[in-house]
């Protein structure tokens, strides 16, 4: 359970950075501003799901949040995302670390809980009576 809490904290850090940036002026940047709000809400919801629901779906969502958010940032650093170009700064490093941690934690937790493979701890077994 401790690893799931770490994953939830990573999602909350990412959400917190995006909320900070939204208040810092990203809210006025059209599509990107709206996507930052989506990221904040998704981060909070996924963090709650990861801790409350011991299933593979929240871990999948956690990995997806980390990958999608970090991927979008890399696009905006190397080129432009919806016309927005950004650079590495303290908040970018903090969010990047949180998003990479979210991916690593999701995969590690899924493996530790046996969600990979048909012989895992949570594999479906047919009940016969």
UniProtKB/TrEMBL annotation:
Keywords: Membrane, Transmembrane, Transmembrane helix. The chain crosses the membrane at residues 5-23, 35-53, 60-84, 90-116. This is Phage holin family protein. It comes from Nocardioides ginsengisoli. The lineage of its organism: Bacteria, Bacillati, Actinomycetota, Actinomycetes, Propionibacteriales.
